[in-house]
């Protein structure tokens, strides 16, 4: 049996029951693929279900406010995916009259859709013979054929795409593409592959040469930078005992674009109480501050792909009312980074 034949046979016996597999609707397949980029299936599935429930059609998603989309996405990270998702939905409605493009080339015109996503949608929904190449596929192909070309190099990307096209089953492309990704996720997993019971173990080069845990090869990531965030949480209580605070929206092209956060002081190193007291005047001006105290003595380290955020939260008790205040009951309505969401959940306002 051929490589693709074994993959198909394995898939038909072992495939998981996943909600998007019940459909060939390109909107739902696209939604699942965008959500599952850089996200595990177990984590992404509840988000997929919420998105489908909230936005049953691409028109519903296109007509939504960006804040609603970001709020629904909260916790998945890589928020540019959510902004691109929203922008692509608008493109489908405005440029394709609400009907998803039905081929690979047109799918590539959508915001946030690259070769992998276009291949997945076109093959699953329209049976176009385009092989998918994601992290799972890289791992299966590099191990089975014993290839040590770095998968994140220009040469590697071209090589593995060509190889994937060569070994795919074009007549059963829908199941084959889903099958090889599923095979990589379950059978040929990163750390504990099930080599003993693998249908490919009689011809896998990596297994034969003892290279299973050395493949695939990946170039070293960009150096991680450290940033120091100090969030100031102003709290004002009115005569009725109702509490208020303040949020501000992040702008620019950096992390968390258009998400909300508490007033922020970014520094080159960890700050002490005296530093915060001095710098708080810049943020709050003439506001009558009663007390400033730290919430967490030890920095909370929030790890992003190329950045580690060393974060402290400072509670600022104020005696007077202030502009742009938000009642603490409404904090949950704003799309915020998970770092902020965790603080809001833990802190007893």
Automatic annotation (TrEMBL):
Pfam families in the record: HhH-GPD, NUDIX_4
PROSITE patterns noted in UniProt: ENDONUCLEASE_III_1
Stored Gene3D superfamilies: Helix-hairpin-Helix base-excision DNA repair enzymes (C-terminal), Hypothetical protein, domain 2, Nucleoside Triphosphate Pyrophosphohydrolase
Annotated EC: 3.2.2.31
Occurrences of domain HhH-GPD (ranges): 35-186
Function: Adenine glycosylase active on G-A mispairs. MutY also corrects error-prone DNA synthesis past GO lesions which are due to the oxidatively damaged form of guanine: 7,8-dihydro-8-oxoguanine (8-oxo-dGTP).
Family to which this protein belongs: Belongs to the Nth/MutY family.
Identification of the protein by name: Adenine DNA glycosylase
